[in-house]
Amino acid sequence: MRRCGPTPALTIFVAYAPTSSYEEGVEAFYVDLEKFYREDHAFYKIIIGDFNAKVGRKKKNPGGTSHRDPRHTME
Fold first, then answer.
1. I want to staple 13 with a disulfide (CB 3.0 to 4.6 A). Which of 3, 47, 50, 55 is the partner?
2. Which strand (E) or helix (H) includes residue 12?
């Protein structure tokens, strides 16, 4: 992230969260975003972007079901 120009009355932050599943990268992104937000002295601040949010329940078994369909097995 970088800032361009003098401090205006309005600042729009456009941010895209990392798509990796590494917690360190995601945490660093939010730390940087908060730092830029707090350091900016504009009267109005708007944050928009893609934060890779996931809505709904967390899957219990993301690799698929643990039960096999006997019709599709090789024996």
1. 47
2. strand 10-16
Could you give the C-alpha distances from 17 to 2, 65, 67, 69, 73, in angstroms and in order?
Answer: 15, 29, 35, 38, 41
Both tokens of 51, joined, read 């934060």
pLDDT, tens digit only, all 75 positions of the chain = 556 666 678 888 998 888 776 788 888 888 998 998 898 888 889 999 888 766 666 666 556 555 555 555 555
Q: Quick one: the chain helix, strand, coil %, rounded to 5?
A: 25, 20, 55
Q: What residues does each domain of the chain span? A: 7-54
